[in-house]
Amino acid sequence: MRRIGVATSRYVWKVVNAVQQWPIWPDPVRGALLRAAGVKIHSTAGVAENVYLGGRQVTLGVDVYVNVGSFVDGSASVVIGDYTRVGPFVRILTGTHAYRNSVIRRRREDGTVGQPVTIERGCWIGMGASIMPGVTISEGCVVAAGSLVVKSTEPNGLYAGVPAMRKRTLSTEDDNAEGGGHFVE
User: Fold this and answer.
1) How far apart are the C-alpha atoms of 119 and 117, rounded to whole Å?
2) Does domain 2-169 have CATH number 2.160.10.10?
3) DSSP letter (8 states) at residue 66
4) Which helix (H) or strand (E) holds 4?
5) How many whole angstroms separate alpha carbon 41 and alpha carbon 39?
6) Residue ranges per domain, the chain?
7) Residue 176: its pLDDT value, please?
8) Nearest by Cα to 120 from 59, 45, 48
């Protein structure tokens, strides 16, 4: 009997996840649908259309925005901290697999190994970036568009490349200034 309940729950999640991706919903409605399905989304957070959430183990903090076409794997928890922006078509992966020392590296019975991903407060994840399982993006980091993050970062850094490397330290001197900082070329 429990098996039927689990199967029904998975089916309901798939339906809610599919419906919330439709472009007809404004962000507040999409957020309400996801909250009703068990995703932890702050009332000021937003999720754009065509964002795939692979499970309910997602937490979006204050003023978070996940942009169009992003993919969030649901094999383990994903926590996106306050004031973070996730660009379009970003991939956040939590599922991986153990591999064997044989020609058949993986078998069905090996299953998925879930490793959580955390994106701390005030980060900016650029378009098309990929974050691999088990990674923590530390507070105040910027991940450049198209980067592949395979290791956890240190706070307040600009990370770019494949694999992503720290390119420079980002200033925090105007964190308390009214209106926050601005990008100036």
Assistant:
1) 7
2) yes
3) E
4) helix 2-20
5) 6
6) 2-169
7) 62
8) 59
Residue-level pLDDT at 10: 78
pLDDT of the residue at 175 = 67
**Identified catalytic residue from 10, 97, 107, 151:** 97
Going by the DSSP 8-state scheme, the letter that residue 14 receives in this structure is H
Query: For this structure, is 42 an active site residue?
Result: no
Q: In 3-state terms, what secondary structure has residue 131?
A: strand
**Which residues of the chain fall below pLDDT 70?**
1-6, 105-106, 175-185
pLDDT tens digit sequence for 40-91: 999 999 999 999 988 889 999 999 999 999 999 988 999 999 999 999 999 9
Beta bridge partners of 133: none
- Work out the number of other CB atoms within 10 angstroms of the CB of residue 128: 17
Q: Which residue has tokens 């697999």?
A: 97
pLDDT number for residue 1: 46
Averaged confidence pLDDT in the chain: 87
